[in-house]
Amino acid sequence: MRILSYSGSGIETTFTEGEDACLAAMVPVAPAPAPDAAAPLLVVGALPHIVEDQFARLFAALGIEVRFFPGRSAGALPPVGAGTRFLLAQPFLGATALALEARGANRIPAPFPFGAEGTTAWLHAAANAFGVPEMHLRQVVAPYRERAKRALERHREQLAGKTIFFLPDSQLEVPLARFLANELGMQPIEVCTPYLHAQHLADELALLPAGTRVGEGSSVDTQLDRVRAARPDLTVCGLGLANPLEAEGLTTKWAIELVFTPIHGFDQAGDLAELFARPLRRRDVLRV
């Protein structure tokens, strides 16, 4: 039995640091690949089983052997070494990525798999890295992508044109803002995140609407001043700020729900949009 020491509290800045610290602590004890063994794709980040199973089926259809980190049991550590290529499933795994790179692994740059377009781009990056023909990728992805787009369309009328302000909480803020803007027509006023990993988020930042203000760190008083001045249709924030803002007549979305709900991939795209549409519907009902 091996005992690993790490801080999983998340109290320091953001609770998603706990997952990052846990996975980073596991990397040094992962086995090395066998000599001359073909290296599978490593998908990094804790995912609900239903999402992991869906991704596993997609990668199998693409002809890409895949391993997930973390595995479903403590002993299921994937080999990590100089031939390992990994794809981040979560945007808050900076320490984990550094630990993997210290073992010789290489990150595949990609947007994150939120929404129809984000998931397509994420799979496209893996397919390019593993030499999957473009036509085969399109054939595999097309039915899933179209089904996801139909699911999103049901929420577009509710969300299109609405303004949204992200206060820093989970580190999911940038890719979620990209998803809401580009796939549902929302207008992000400001996107604040506890940490802004410019390299890991480069693709996401490039896809944000021009003029979107992006901020790093937490300066609660000044950020709240900007929320109150902007009066967005929806503010995404932590539990401690939601009730005070609601009392001021602002509609809020709890950021923590976005971490503990399956939101990755094609089949969850409609559910992800629903999480943002629901508080706006509630607001409209209460106004009647």
Write up what this structure looks like.
This protein is of the alpha/beta class. The protein folds into 2 domains: 17-140, 3-Layer(aba) Sandwich (Rossmann fold); 148-287, Nitrogenase molybdenum iron protein domain (Rossmann fold). It has 11 helices and 9 strands. α6 (173-184) links the parallel β5 (163-166) and β6 (187-193). The longest helix is centred in the middle third of the chain and has 26 residues, at 134-159. The radius of gyration is 19 Å and the shape is globular. The mean pLDDT is 93.
Name the strands of the widest sheet in spatial order.
7-6-5-8-9
* CATH superfamily annotation of the largest domain: Nitrogenase molybdenum iron protein domain
Helical fraction: 40-55%
What Rg do the Cα atoms give? Answer: 19 Å
The overall pLDDT, averaged over residues, is 93
Main sheet?
5 strands, parallel
The shape, in one word, is: globular
Name of the CATH architecture of the largest domain = 3-Layer(aba) Sandwich
| Tally of structural domains | 2
Distance between the termini: 60 Å
What's the CATH topology name of the largest domain? Rossmann fold
Q: List the uncertain runs.
A: none
Q: Given this structure, which CATH class of the largest domain is correct?
A: Alpha Beta
Note the beta-strand portion.
5-15%
Question: Tally the helices: what do you get?
Answer: 11
Give the tally of β-strands: 9
SSE string, helices as H and strands as E: HEHEEHEHHEHEHEHEHEHH
Secondary structure class reads alpha/beta
